[in-house]
Amino acid sequence: MNPSDHDHELDRQLREVAVPTDLVARLKCIPEAAEIDAALDRELSAVEVPAGLTDQLHEIAASQALVTRNVRERSAASRRSPIAWAAALWTIAATLLVAFGMGWVWQLNWKTDIAKNDPVSVIPVPDSRPERSLALEWLGPTGAEIDAHTETPELSPLTDMQPFWPVITEVPPPETQVSQVDVPRIKSLSEELPDDLLANTFLMRWQPLGANPMIDSMHGRPQLLLPAAGAVSYFPESQAYDREFLLREAAHPFASPQHPSIRSTSVPVTGSQKSFENSLFSENPLSPEVLENARTEEWLAATGKFYVPAQPNQIELRTAAGPAVFAGAGTQLLEIGIVAGSTDPKNRAPVHLTVAITPPDSRQHARQTWLPVKIALREMIEHLRPHDTATLVVMSDVPYVLIDDANSQHRDEWFAALDQIDAGSPSNLAEGIRFASATSLTKAGFGDIRRSLVVLSDRFPALDAATNQQLRPLIENASQQGIAFSWIQLEDENYASLVPVPTALKGVGNWQVTNSLQRLGRILNQQIHGASTLIGTNPSVRVNWNEKSVAQYRLIGYQPEGGHFVSTSDTREFHALESGTLLLELVLPEDGPNDIATIELTWHDTQGKKQKSVQKVSRLQFASSWQASPLSLQAAQLTQQCLALYQNSYFSRRRGNTIDELDNWTSTLNPAIRQHASYPRLEVLLPSLHD
Fold it and tell me: Are strands 595-605 and 610-618 parallel, antiparallel or unpaired?
């Protein structure tokens, strides 16, 4: 190899050695020439020399053969002593400095691969990272952002600035090596929500995620939302009424009055309390077996005693509205009450009512017999006129008068007397009947006063033949002196045919078998008023919704059969002072007319004549808070929610309602409800009221 080729090849080999990019700058920063040797030692010691470089350079200088070959072996002559190795290193360093200055530009613009076709290179192909590190990266605005500012020059702060572009002209690295990472722009989910959460687009978009605008999360406590068996929503897929949801969940879904076919709702109202009494006054109260058939409308009829009374012999509408505290924010509750007035004649004679009761023999027995009687007697005292009086006789082993000649002004004393009757006291029914008859006879019979004796006991079958024979003449004598007898065996009406009338009572007075609270109330009212308690039949309510004021509505209770608003309750009769309740959950838009709906009530009086009354519901009737809600609405909400929790109903389950939540709202119950005669009807449902 001639000297020129040797030098050229040596330059090419040294040019591929990787050196730090700032080596020249560091060498230029050496302060004094006197320190050049020490500085060079320090700086050059940082240069990484490839292994075997000295041997390779020696072979290039000593051999005339090709520079690259497949197999290379180090000869013994190439093994130098440490002194020779150090001298060679200094020679390489000096040559490296000279070559670095001469080939800097050449290195940036010209690439070569000395071992392109050789399977084993003399020097490994250097990594391309040092070369890429020389390329400057633009960290300023992106092209899209500059274009955006260019489109609005009056708002862009870059308008008056000269564009700063990189002045480096070297070849940029491949596009695959440079990745433009956009900074994620986080947006709130609320920005994606429409103003109207009931919009179809919202439901179609978010329903797969399980979102539901009718459920408002309860802050401060977790909610358990159980998955539904199928694709179930609170809202029907169309604006029409969803009957499949009704049959599947046994509950009315939300419906939209925007659809003409459901712009009006007709519901036959019932005043039956059968399922309420079976659930509370049975041998196994609040058991799953009896709760399975419990109906919300019958529970509401049983506890709906907090309405303003209606006019005598009339059925009237009562409305109340306020927030639905168990449904979440944005849902309102509309209560429609149907109240029957009294059948008390205007010019009837005063009455003195004597009530005789045997004390219950056990606590469990007291719930089945004494508790319904106690509630009925509490409500009876408020139905007395100023000249009416009542006496309470306890037929214990030694009968006695607990309270005598009480009138409507003595309600507190009457309530206290009823509370004193304890379970477990012994009783003597025969002596009690004789004593109660004598007590009733002692009342003055001036004028046309009526004297009535009501005997309530569950022990009439215990009267033997000898006792019946002794009682018969006493009862006949009292009846001849003007005492009107009513005998009530406190037992399920289904067993009436199995309980024979005692011979001492047969043909004297009225014999009945019942432990129904509703039936007991009718009997006592009939004894006071001296007239039939029936007011009307077949009451029905029609609600005509204003589609501009109501977005959605849902009827609570009145589960129909076959997808129609047909109640399965067993009675459609309304007697004196009874009531029925319709509860509807409403979703009202923020803006809309004040008129919410028009309610029409139709019913038939005792002569079969159709009666009708109309009432409008306005936004002004909606209470602003739970505390401001009417008494009837508070009682209805607690009753409905209590049954929903017992039955684990669909809406209660999806909303995450709990017993603790029910207790919290119960603790803020209006104190006026506790003073009401019908308060025990609500008290038996809510455990927290007993504390």
Answer: antiparallel
pLDDT at 63: 57
The 3-state DSSP class for residue 483 equals strand
User: Could you give the CA distance from residue 125 to residue 112 in angstroms, rounded to a whole number?
Assistant: 10
Residue with tokens 């033997």: 464
Token couple for 510: 């009225």
Q: Kindly list the distances between the CA atom of residue 331 and the CA atoms of 193, 604, 620, in Å, as whole numbers in the listed order.
A: 19, 34, 16
3-class secondary-structure state, position 628: coil
Per-residue pLDDT, averaged over 295-324, amounts to 95
Name the β-bridge partners of 611: 603
**Torsions phi, psi for 241 (to 5 deg):** -70, 135
**Given this model, what pLDDT does residue 82 score?**
56
What average pLDDT does this structure show over 263-274? 90
The secondary structure of residue 311, as a DSSP letter, is P
Q: Residues 437-454, buried b or exposed e (16+ Cβ, 10 A)?
A: bebbbebeeeeebbbbbb
Does position 49 have pLDDT exceeding 80, yes or no? no
Neighbours of 653 (CB within 10 A): 16
Most confident range (mean pLDDT) of 91-100, 553-562, 637-646 is 637-646
Instruction: From residue 357, give the alpha-carbon distance in Å to each of 369, 401, 501, 661.
Output: 10, 11, 18, 39
Which amino acid, 214? M
Which of 276-290, 355-369, 412-426, 598-612 has the largest mean confidence? 598-612
* Sequence-ordered list of residues with C-beta below 8 angstroms from that of 431, at least 6 positions apart, any chain: 395, 398, 399
SS (H, E, C) 354-406: EEEECCCCCHHHHHHHHHHHHHHHHHHHCCCCCCCEEEEEECECCCEEEEEEE
Q: What is the pLDDT of residue 446?
A: 62
- Structure tokens of 486? 């009513």
| 370 within 8 A of 421, measured Cβ to Cβ | yes
> Above pLDDT 90, what percent of the chain?
47
Cα dihedral 673/677/678/680 (nearest 10): 90
**pLDDT band, residue 51 (cuts 50/70/90):** confident
Q: Tokens standing for 456? A: 């309530």
CA distance 684 to 434: 34
Q: Is 597 exposed, middle or buried (0-12, 13-18, 19+ CB in 10 A)?
A: buried
pTM above 0.70, yes or no: no
Cα–Cα distance between 391 and 409 in angstroms, integer?
A: 14
Residue 18 or residue 690, greater confidence:
18
Q: What is the DSSP letter of 556?
A: E
Q: Is residue 301 a contact partner of residue 571, using CB atoms and an 8 Å limit? A: no
φ/ψ of residue 608, rounded to 5: 85, 5
DSSP state of 433: H
Tell me how far apart the alpha carbons of residues 602 and 615 are, in angstroms, rounded to a whole number. Answer: 12
Dihedral (CA of 113, 114, 120, 125) sign: negative
Q: Is the pLDDT of residue 392 over 80?
A: yes
For residue 460, give the nearest of 424, 423, 485 by alpha carbon. Answer: 485
- Strand (E) or helix (H) holding 6: helix 3-15
**Would you call 552 helix, strand, or coil by DSSP?**
strand
- What pLDDT score was predicted for residue 84? 59
> With 70 as the cut, is the pLDDT of residue 11 above it?
yes
* CA distance linking residue 468 with residue 455, whole number of Å: 15
The position carrying tokens 């419906």 is: 255
Residue 505, pLDDT > 80, answer yes
Place of tokens 């308690």: 533
